[in-house]
Amino acid sequence: MKALTCHFYIILCFHILSLFSASLFSSSFSLKIEETCSKDSDCDSGLKCETCPANGNTRPRCVRTQPVIPSSKVKGLPFNKYSWLTTHNSYAISSFTMSGTGSFLLAPTNQDDSVTSQLQNGVRGLMLDMYDFENDIWLCHSFGGKCFNFTAFQPAIGTLKEIQAFLEANPTEIVTVFIEDYVTSPMGLTKVFDAAGLSKYTFPLSRMPKNGGDWPTVDDMVQKNQRLVLFTSEKSKEASEGIAY
């Protein structure tokens, strides 16, 4: 009987040791951020196995796909004391093979996700290139200050309405839009932001700090519903449309 009991305990201990060793092996050898991988389960907790062709990285690597919103960790600071995740050419999405004009797109792309998905995944800054094109304001990844059929992605209002929908659904979030500005039509930016329903969220130029001073706190901007911060690359728009340069 003693021999049988001892044998049982040996088997039980061996089983527990095997489970512990497997767990230790798994955690010790989980791939870290930026290490090459073949599937999500290869990566450490909180990481996914993804590729990013836009930056030339065609080999899948372990990446963090859900950033932490900084104001959720430290509260009460001025807006400028936080770092906000921003995407370049946010509208230039790889799934776009055809222009909104019906032509094939020859312009390079930078993003895999839609603007809505970018915002849902923690992006809070969007870089948009805006042009006068076909009697409207378009998002183009172009050259020479002109938009062409083969560089025109879509009318800007579609992307701006995605931003409006996000702000409406998330009343404590703030989004910044950086405009590479080739719009020359009078009040062109103001009109398209008005049409997208974004004017009511715009942070006013008059409240922006001068000489490097601190911005209002995030809480203050949220309470006043001034949750869309706009910047343009065209200095004259400060005087003509009230958009910060």
CA radius of gyration is 25 Å
Helix content: 25-40%
Residue runs with pLDDT of under 50 for 5 or more positions: 2-27
CATH topology of the largest domain: TIM Barrel
Cα end-to-end separation:
87 Å
For the largest beta-sheet, the strand count, sense and barrel status come to: 6 strands, mixed
By secondary-structure content and strand pairing, the structural class works out as alpha/beta
Number of strands: 8
CATH architecture of the largest domain: Alpha-Beta Barrel
CATH class of the largest domain: Alpha Beta
Along the chain, the helix and strand elements come as: HEEEHEEEHEHHEH
Number of domains: 2
Strand content: 15-25%
**CATH level 4 superfamily of the largest domain:** Phosphatidylinositol (PI) phosphodiesterase
Q: Average pLDDT, to the nearest integer? A: 88
Specify the number of helices. 6
Sum up the structure in keywords.
single chain, 245 residues, alpha/beta, Omega-AgatoxinV, TIM Barrel, 2 domains, six-stranded mixed sheet, two-stranded antiparallel sheet, 6 helices, 27% helix, disordered N terminus
How would you describe the overall organization of this protein?
The chain has 245 residues and is an alpha/beta fold. It has two domains: 24-65, Omega-AgatoxinV (Irregular), CATH 4.10.40; 66-241, TIM Barrel (Alpha-Beta Barrel), CATH 3.20.20.190. 27% of the residues lie in helices and 18% in strands. The protein is built from six helices and eight strands, in the order αβββαβββαβααβα. It has helices spanning 2-28, 115-120, 156-169, 188-195, 218-223, 237-241; strands at residues 48-52, 57-63, 86-87, 125-133, 136-140, 152-155, 175-182, 228-232. The strands form two sheets. Strands 3, 4, 5, 6, 7 and 8 form a six-stranded mixed sheet that branches. A hairpin with a 4-residue loop joins strand 1 (48-52) and strand 2 (57-63). The longest helix is centred in the first third of the chain and has 27 residues, at 2-28. It starts with a helix and ends with a helix. The model is unreliable at 2-27 (pLDDT under 50). Residues 1-30 form the signal peptide. One of its GO terms (biological process) is lipid metabolic process. Keywords: Signal. It comes from Opuntia streptacantha. This is Phosphatidylinositol diacylglycerol-lyase.
